User: Fold this.
Amino acid sequence: MAAGLPSDEPRVCKPGFHGRVAAAVRLVPPGRVTTYGDVAGVLGSPRVARQVGWALAALPAGSDVPWHRVINAQGRISHRGELVRASEQRRLLEAEGVLFSDSGRLDLASLRWDWPELP
DNA sequence: TTGTTGACTCCCG
DNA sequence: CCGGGAGCCAACA
Assistant:
């Protein structure tokens, strides 16, 4: 096995699409949010918003990736069934100072983070 | 190799 | 405002 790269390491740490997603999301500062499409666009393909969400779903528990700062283009939380996940996401965002609307929607025009361009 | 799935987005009614 | 359908690409079995 290659030295310096333990096989126990999760795939998200390897150089791949999810790896870039994790790295990009990790650059999002507290109090700001971004959309799946934006992350995908910064990665080079605005069509791969699904893969961004899929990559976040593959993140290991306790990862240093602020997955809760990633929302859909509608300014709402994507739960896809797991409401527990959405509840925690909203809680984490509120803890960072992000305010939600009555319908559980937030102001993307104000909270959407402007990417400084990713290599 | 192919086929299926999916934390999305856009369009239409 | 909300719902349904189609398209897109990457990872997994």
Summary: Strands of chain A lie at 34-35, 70-71. The two ends of chain A are 30 Å apart (CA to CA). Residues 1-14 of chain A have pLDDT under 50 and may be disordered. The helical segments of chain A are 17-26, 36-43, 49-57, 83-95, 108-111.
